[in-house]
Structures
1.
Amino acid sequence: MSGSLTAERFDELVLAYFEETARPEEVEELGCMLSADDAALGRFVRRAKVHAGLTKLAKGENVLLGPLDGDARRSTVRTYYWGALAASVALLLGVAYMAYRGSRDPSAPYLHAVSKHAVLTRDGKPLESEKGMTLRPGDVLESTGEGDIIIVYPGEDTRVEVSSDSRLRLEDAASGKTLYLARGGLRAEVAAQSRGRHVAVTTPHAEVRVTGTIFRMRVTREWTGVEVEKGAVRARTRKKDEPVEITEGYSGLTGEGGKIDVAAMPPRLPAVPDEERARLLAVETPAQKELRAELAQFGARGQRVAFCNNTDGVQRVYTMKPDGSDVRCVTPSPGPGGFNPHVSPDGGRAVFENRIDPKLGGTLPADPRYRKRWDLAVYLADITGDGRRPLTVGGAPHWSPDGRRIIYHYPRPGEGGWRVGVFDTDSGTERALDGIPSGGRDPCFSADGSHVIVSAKSAFFVAAVDTNADGVTEVTGVTTFNHLKGIDAEVSSDGRWLVWVQGTHKSMGSWIYYASMGTDGSIGPGISLPLGWGKEASVNYHPDFSPSGKYLVYAHAKADPDVRSWSHGSKQELYVTRFPSCDVTVRITWNNGSNRHPQWWGQEFLR
Amino acid sequence: MTEQTPGESEARARVLRLLVEHHDELFSFILSIVRNLSVAEDVMQDVAVVVCERWNQFTVGTDFGKWSRQIARYKILSERDRTLKRIHLLDDDAIDRIAVGFDDDRHTSHDHLAALRECLKHLKDRARNVVRLRYSGGISCEAIARRLGTALTTVYQDLSRARGSLANCVERRLTSAGRGQR
C-alpha cells in the first residue's frame, strides 16, 4: 500500500465495511484496493481476524469486560449532568401528566404492557391501544399470545397478566375491581385491598373474590379452574351457592352438579432451593446469560417446551417457556399422568403415552393379546388438559406437520417386534403403515410430511409416504441406512437436520448425534455433538430442535459408573444448547423430579 | 445407500475432526465476506452440511482450510442473488483475493485468539472501552457516541485504531512466537 493518505482511506473503508455502514460504491472501492494491493489484502485479513476474534471472545468469554476508563468516566459525568437535567424535565412533565390523569380517575387501571397482537374494543369499536393507556369499564381486551396484555392498578401492586387467546372485559362495579373472563386465562397478583373492597373475576361458570393473593384462572367452554399460588380465594358458581375457600396449593374446578371441586394441585415446579439455583446461575458465563435472554424472548413470543416429570411419583406432562419459567401441568391429578408428549403444530392439543386407565376417561377395545405384554395407549388431550381420551394402543406418538395425522408404534400381536401406525384425526380412523420393515420404532415425520423416519436396532428406515385418493396414508418406498443406529430421532423444522440418541461404550453413556438430511429423505453421516465427549461419562436423551433449528433441547444426566447406556433410571434435567456448535449450554429445569422427553414448539418470529 | 467400510468411516471421522479444528478460521473468513454475525452463522451451517456430504472429496494431506474456504466461497456466491441479496457483497475477484489472503496466513485460529487475548490486556483504556462497548455490549457506534458524549467520528477513529493496534500487536506476537520456535 503506498502513501499514508491511501492507508487512511483504506482504514476508513474497512471500518465502514465491518460496521455494515459502507455504501455500495465504498464496498466496490475496497474491493478494488484488495484486488490491486497485496499489502492492503494482508492488512484486511488481519483486521478481519481481529474482528472475528473479538466477536468470538465477546460471545464466549468475559475478557472484554472491565471498568470504564477515565475518559469514559468523564463522559459519563457529562452524561449524568444532561441525564439529571432531562430527568428533572421528565419529572415535571410526569407531575403534570399525573395531575391530568388525576383529573379523570387516579385509580383507573392502565395497560402496563400491550403487544401489537392485542385488541382493545371500546364502545363496540376497536381502538388503537398503547402502553400506559387508561382503561374504562366496558373495555374488552383480547390477546393472541402470552404476555400480550398486562393490566396494572395504580397506587397498589395489583397486576393482571392475560394469557394467550383470552378475552377479558372490565366491569363497572362500585365495590371494587371486577373483571369478566369470557375465555382463556389470567394470572393475578392482587395487593391487600382496603376494608370492604375486593377484586373479583367472574366467568361463565363461576365467580372468584380475593382481597390479597396470587392466583391463576382458566376458562373453557365447559369449566372454570382456579389455582391459588399464595393466600386464599373464595369461589362460588354462578348459581350463587355457598362460596368455598380455596387456599394456597389447592385448585378449584367447576364440575358436574354445579359445585366447585377442590383438590391439591400437582406439585409446583421448580422445587430446587432458591439458594442452590442462585448459586448455579451466578457462575454462568456472559454467553450463557445471553442464551438465557434469547430463550426468554422466545417464551415471550409464545414458544413453549412440553416435557414429562415425575416429581409426585407419577409421570405427568408439563409445558413451560423455553427458559424454564411458567411451568403448567397438562395432566394434573387426580389419576395417572402421562409421558412422551408431543404437541400439535398449532399448540392446541397434545398426544402422549400412558398406561390404559379408566380414570383418564374413554375406553379401548379389550385385546388380551396386547394386555399380556403391553398396556400403553396413545392419549389425546387439549393443551389445557381438558378432554383426555385414548386413541389407540401404542406409544411414541408424533404429529404430522399439517396436524392431521398422528404416527406411533405398537407391538405386533403374537408376532413380536413393532409396527408403525397412523391415526387420522379428521376421520378418527387408524391403520397400519405397511411396508416399513419389522423392528422400526419411534417414528417421526420429515419436515414436509413426505417421509417417515423410524429407528431400528441397527439401522434407520426412511419411508416415503403419500396420501391416496381415499385420504389413506401409504408407504411408496423405503430406504435403509445401515450406517446409522439409535433412538428418539427428530427432524428440524426446515428439514435439513436429523438428531437422535446413540449409545457409545457403556462407560461413556449415551450421546446425541446429528446428520444432514436431503429433501429426498437421504441422511448424511452421523456426527456426535460435542456435549462434553471425552471429559466425563454422561447420559443424553430426547433431543428436539427449536422452531428455528438453531437450538436443541435435550435431557441430560450425569452418569455414574454403573449407569448403562440405555438406562432411564438416573435423574435427568433439561438443557438447551446452540446447534450444532454446542458452544453454550444452559439448564432450564430446576426441580426434584426427573425431566424427560422435551418437545419445543411455536412459531419462529425472530428470524 | 451402501454401508461404509472401516477405512471410509475413519477417513470421514478425520475430515469431521478437521472441520471442528478449522471452525473458527472458516467462520472468520465467512464473517469477513458477509459481515453480519447472524448471516455468517447461517452460511457456516450450510458449509458444514456440504463438508459432511462431500467428505470423500477431500484429499488427505492437502490444506483443509483452503478446501473448506472454497466450499464457503461457492456457497456465498451461489446465495448472492437469493438469501444474501440484501447484503452488498464484494465482487468475485475481491472474494477470491480474500480467500488467498487467508490461505497465506499460516497461523492457527487458536494461536491467533491466544495472541488477541494478550494484546487486549495492553490496549489503552480509551480504546479498550470502545472495543468493550462495541463487542461485549453489542452497541452500535452511534449509540456508543451518545453514551460517551463524543462525536461519532471520534468513536469510529477510536475503534479503527483499536482494531489496527490489535492487528499489529497480534502480528508481532505471532511472528515472534514463530521465530522462537525455529
2.
Amino acid sequence: MNIDIYGKGKILVRLSVNKLTFGYDYRTVLKDISFKINSGDFLAVIGNNGSGKSTLVKCILGINKVAPNQIFLDDIDVTLFHNFINIGYVPQKFDDFNYEFPITVNEILRASNVRRISEDKLLELLDKTGILELQNENINNLSGGQLQRVFIVRALMNDPKLLILDEPTVGVDRRNVEAFYKSVNELNKEGITIILITHNIHEAVADISHVLSIHNGEGVFKEVPRGDDE
Amino acid sequence: MIYMLADTPFLIAIFEYDFLLYALIAGLIMGFITPLIGSFVIIRRLSFIADTLSHFSLAGLSIGLFLTNTLSLTFIGDPLYLAVTAAVIGAFIIEVLRGYYQNYKEISMPIVMSLGTSLSALFISLAGGWNSQVYNFLFGSLLTVGNDYLYLIAITAVIVIIMILAFYKQIVLVSFDEAYAKLVGIKVGRFQFVSTLILSLVVSLSIVTVGVLLVASLMIIPVAAAMKVGKSFRNTITIAIFFSEISVVAGMWLSYEFNIPPGATIVLINIFILFMTGFFKRFIMNKRLKSRQQQIQMK
C-alpha cells in the first residue's frame, strides 16, 4: 500500500514514536525510544554530541530506513510514506550539504521548490526571514546565520505542519539567536509543530512544551509547563 | 598524417580535410557534455569515478583486441562498443560495492580500477602485446574518428542534455543535498544508478578523444577551474563549458601546427587554464571577494 501525502487534504498533526530502536551496521544508536506529541506542541530534543539526536530526526524523516511499526505520523506508519514534504527540515550546518561549489540562494531554493509555490510567495518568505537582498548571492559567501535562514526558507516553502530544526543556532552569533527563537515561537503559535534539536537547552529561549533527553541512545520524555503568553 | 598538411593554415585545412572537421566536431561535442556531467560528478565528490570507469573501459577495448587480433572474431566490429559495455559493467560493480561498504564507499573505486587495469594488461598481452591500437586507446585517436562515431556521440549528447533539462531540479537536489532529496521523495539510489550509467557511456565514448589515461581530465579540470571563479551554479557550468571548448579548439589548432597529439594538447591547455584561473583568483579576485563577503554579511 502506498499513501501519498502530497495532496493538500491531509495535514500532519501527531507524531508518535513507539519503542524505536535503530543502528548503523552493528552499532545501536537509539534504544527503545518512545514519545508522543500533538499538533502545536514544541518538543526540545536534548543530549550531548553523538547521543543520537540527529539520528532520531533522520529516522522520522525517512532518511534513515527504520523497521515498520515504530514511527507514526498522523497514525500512519512512516515506512509507508514516499515523501515527507509536509515536514520542514532545517539540517545541522555542514551536515549533508555540499558546500564550496558555487550556487546562489535563488538556485538552491528554486530547485527545492517541489510544491511549485508562486514567485510572490517565495519572495515573501525571503523578505520575512530578512534575506530578500541575498537571493542572488553565492551561498558560500554568506555568514552562518544567513545560511541558516536560507535553510529555514527552504523548510517553510513547502507549508510544513511540522518543523524540525537540528542545532539551528550553531554558528549564529548571540544577538541573532534570541531573534531566531522569537520567530520560531511565533511559527509555533501559528500552529506549526516544532521539534528542536539542541545540545544546549539553556541557550534555547524557546517556549517548549515537551523535552526528550537522549543519553547514550536512551531517551527520557517529559512534559514541561509552557510559559504564559507575554 | 597531419604532418603533410602543415603548410595549409588550420582554418582552411578544416574545410579541406574531412578527418580534421570530424575531429573538431567530435571534440566540440565531447567538450560540451563532459564538463556538464563533470560538474555533477564533482559536487557529489565522485571525481575518481571517471578515472575508474575509463580504466575499466580499457578492459573492454583489450578484450576487443584479443577477440579480433587473436581469435579473428571480426564480427564484433569497433572495440568501442565493448568499451561502452565494459564501462556499464564497471558502473554496476561500483554501485554494488558502494552498497556493500556503506561507510567506505570510495573503496569501490580502486577495486574496480585494478580489476580493469589487470584485465587490460592480460588481454593486451594475449592479443600480441603493445601496438599502435593500444597507444590510441591510452592516449586517444581524435584524428581517426568517422561518421559512425560522430552520430553516436551526437545522439548521446542530445540524450544527456535532454535528461539534464528534464530532471534539472532533481539532479541539483541530489547533488547538493542528498538528505533533502530523500526527504522530498526522490529515489536517490535509483537516480544514482541511472546517472552512473550515463556517466559510463560518456566516459567510454570520450576515450576516443583523449584516451583512457586522460578521460577524467576532460570532465574534471574545466569544472575545477570554473568553480573558482563562477558566481552561480549556471554561471559556473557555462564557464566550464567555455573553458573546455576553448581547450578543444586551441588544442586541435596547436596539434595541427606543431604536429603534436591532440588529446594530450587539449588536456594541457585545460591545465593551463586551470592555473591561470587560480592565479586570477588568488591575486585579483580574492581581494574583491573579501570585501564583497563582508558587504554581504553586513546585510
